[in-house]
Amino acid sequence: MFDPEWDAGCPFCSFLADHIGGALVHLEHHDVSVAVISRAPMAKIAAYQKRMGWRFKWVSAYNSDFNSDYQRVVHER
Q1: Which end of the chain is more exposed for a tag (fewer CB within 10 A), N or C?
Q2: 6 near 40, Cβ under 8 Å?
Q3: Given a cut of 70, is residue 77 above it in pLDDT?
């Protein structure tokens, strides 16, 4: 959704993220959480999230093995 080299999130992913907010109240009512993980540094993510007015949990995988670990687990299934 947000590459470390970008100044903003992917337009398509951002469009989808715009619609998470309406579902959050219903998901939280059923003890379901939503989290988005991007490769960009947290400072870029936080600034973009604030600009867009999103309140879902968004974390950074920057400078970590998360993406390669995730891909390995997905492909092992």
Answers
A1: C
A2: yes
A3: no
